[in-house]
# Entry
Amino acid sequence: AQNPMTIPCDLDLLRAAEAVAAAEQRQAVAAAALTDAELERDKIAARIQALDVARAAIVSRRQTGDQRPDDGAMLELHAADREGLATLVAERDAMVAEGRNAASQAKGQVDMARVVFGRLEAQRAEGALCERAEQLSQILIGTIDALRAERDRLGGGQLCWTPSRALMDRLTPLDLRRDW
# Structure
């Protein structure tokens, strides 16, 4: 016997699941690219910070009176290196911004694909549950008819079974929405 909660797989559901997987793959690629761009930018920023520390050490040393002949050349070299690295950091910042945008778009695509898949899955589950409810309805009708037949064989009267309050509470609102 088939499990009443088994949701049959169909092509639309399969395509939606594949769309989720593809979107998640694109998101992973975008996240990896963003991480790489951030690491590159951070490495360059660390080099700038090291140059700033070295420059500060030279300035501090010179302020204490320890002046060396190559200090001027070293300070100029640090300034030139810092300027070149600042350009690289700006380029990497742009790459990071692009990466964040791509990662954000990929996340949106994943979210949308999951919504579509979830909706299709819920529709299929609802359809399966409606079929099962109809089967149970037919079983209940058959059982009530059989009870009535047996009660009639016993001379008639009230059935030994009545629907529970919980069952009636669930059936009554459904009855109000049905066109007979």
Summary: Residues 71-153 form the longest helix (83 residues).
